[in-house]
Amino acid sequence: MAFDLSDYVDVRQRIEMFREKYPSGTLQPADPNDPFKLVQVGDRWFIAYTACAYRTPDDPRPGIGCAWEPIPGRTPYTKDSELMNAETSAWGRAIHAVLAVDRNTPIASADEVRNRQSDGDVVQLKAVQNRPKPVVRPIGGSEREATPKQQAFLRSLATRLELGDQDLMKIMGCDIEAVTMSVAKQTIDGLLAVQNGNAEMVYGDDSSITIVPNANGSAT
Questions:
Q1: Is the pLDDT of residue 203 over 90?
Q2: Which run of H or of E encompasses 199?
Q3: Which of 92, 96, 122, 153 could form a disulfide with 109 if both were Cys (CB 3.0 to 4.6 A apart)?
Q4: CA 16, CA 109: separation in Å to the nearest integer?
Q5: Distance in angstroms (rounded) separating the CA atoms of residues 100 and 37
């Protein structure tokens, strides 16, 4: 299913927030003489960019953001635009580092989440923000409660990945005892993808956990 980007702020909006808060601020590469690097990890190549968000021309401690993109890009948004996307993502993180973005927004920008989408959709694994206790998703209509077998398999996968019930709750948006069959299946598929090395878990500063496909495969 498609990932909900409603809680994510794109870099363009972050730049507007940064300008409003720091009118004389600038965004620059950490090393203007060497703004990006090509990095090899195993048999894969990435283009890495480090950006600085200067609040003033003489800012002694600018915000620093790092980002990289696989080469070649695997999505319509990143193919042949790997450097530009890495730069944009690094800008967004640098702006977040100087606390110019609302504290309730995730560190990852909407641009980053979009760029991580492969041929399929990103699996939505989103927590309810600032939740003091588990949120129980009502079961009704055609939504049937997950079977005991599904619940047991979820816990088994979580244990293998060193996750607890609280982590599963963040992933599914509800307590495991109240999860529906469809959400359980989507979560199982996502966790299996992580286990098999075809996806990774991204932790947001809003306590969310998002599974996104990596260059080896899809999390869907």
A1: no
A2: strand 199-203
A3: 92
A4: 14
A5: 27
